[in-house]
Each structure stands twice: as structure tokens, then as C-alpha cells.
Amino acid sequence: xxxxxxxxxxxxxxxxxxxxxxxxxxxxxxxxxxxxxxxxxxxxxxxxxxxxxxxxxxxxxxxxxxxxxxxxxxxxxxxxxxxxxxxxxxxxxxxxxxxxxxxxxxxxxxxxxxxxxxxxxxxxxxxxxxxxxxxxxxxxxxxxxxxxxxxxxxxxxxxxxxxxxxxxxxxxxxxxxxxxxxxxxxxxxxxxxxxxxxxxxxxxxxxxxxxxxxxxxxxxxxxxxxxxxxxxxxxxxxxxxxxxxxxxxxxxxxxxxxxxxxxxxxxxxxxxxxxxxxxx
Length: 280
Prior knowledge:
Blueprint: H1 30-71, E1 73-75, E2 81-83, H2 84-114, H3 118-123, H4 129-157, H5 169-188, H6 194-210, H7 222-229, H8 232-245, H9 251-278
Helix pairs in contact: 1-2, 1-4, 2-4, 2-5, 2-6, 2-8, 4-5, 4-9, 5-8, 5-9, 8-9
């Protein structure tokens, strides 16, 4: 090499499009994404995760017990009278799962996608877009499971689990978190600024207030009832409420199917979007 020889700076190359059916989408290594996420949470985000657990507990103590002393009993959709605290507690459990899943699949995903460029680096390896999607969604599910388990213990201590079927609330909450995480990640993949991510809170707040969380569906006019019944949180609230109060009905299968459709649709859109953004 002579003194006049220099090195020309090289630009990072984008990963080439993958071919080969399912191998183009999934390498079977989503655990690598999960492991990286757990390490990041342990080192910097654990306080945020823990703090998210207390919000529904505060709502339960202030409204369920405080306001509940004035309200008395409330009827479920099957006509079963329960205390007001037992009525809103499962709704807050569903809300807790939704909030945990949405936070991880929107704010966290947006930062990794648009600022740290983490997914671009991941997809430059053998990982496929479905590996990334499943890994991130699993992290959201794990957060939802932690919130749900802790809140269910609080409900048990307060005597608000009225049926043995309350143990099934854990898998029900995971189903809810899975649905919201899949849909949230799909929507986030189209966002370009933090202002757009703020719109998520604009949607979550009315859904939180009006999904029969604090009042029975029957108090609303018929037209508004149809709108509420189209919201995913209403289906989650009714599913968990039926399990914790023992007010079981065939309609619960419809609630489960609703979230299965959310999960499948969210995974399909997320996988296609990640491939379009970083591989095609």
C-alpha cells in the first residue's frame, strides 16, 4: 500500500430482499428479540413497568370502594347483581392489560423503529419480520401478564373474585393483550412522528371511559350501545367480567373470536409492513 492510497468511506447496505416462502418472514428465533428486550427493561425501564401496575389499583380503591359505597349493587349483562367494586374490578383488569400492551407496542416500537433503527439492524441479520413482530408482542404480553396477575391478587384479597372461573381471567387477559399488541404494532408501523403516536391516547381515553367500564351498557342510548359494542375494550371487559363474577354466557365465545381476529390481522399487517419498510 502506497502513501497515496486512501480508503473510500462505504455506505451501509440495506439487507437484500429475502426469498423462500416462510423463511423469508420467519427464522424461528424470536427469542433473540425477547432476550434483548428483557435486558433493556431490566437496565432502564423497570420503574416504568412497575408504576403502570398501580394506576388500576388506585381507580379500584377510589371508585370501587369509595363511590361503590354510594352506588350499591349493579347488574351484569346476564342480570346477576354484584357490588359496584366487583363490577368495575374486572373492567380495570382488562384496561390494565390493554394499557401495558399498547404502551409496549406503540411508544417503544416507534422509538425502536424511527430513532434507534433497531429493527433495521435486526432484519440485517438472519431474523425475519415475523421474528421481530412475535418477539415484541411477547414482551407486551409479558407486561400484561405481570399487571394482570398482580391485580387479580389484589381482587382476591378484597374478595372481588366471585367465582372459581376467575382463574381463567389470566389467559383471557393475555388474549386481550395479544390483540391490542398486534394491532398497536401494526398501526405504529405507519407513524412518522411522536405527535402521531399521541393520537393513541386520544383513542384510548374515550374507549376506557365508555366501554362499560364504570357503568352497565344499558345506561347508554341504543345507538351509542352499537358503537360501544364495536370497540375491542368492551369485548375484553365483558369477557373478564363474566369470568370473575361467574356470569357466563355463550356470548363470551364471540368476545374470544373478536380478539383472535385482531391477533391474526395485526400479525399479518405488522409482518408485511416490516418487510416493506426494511427488506423490500
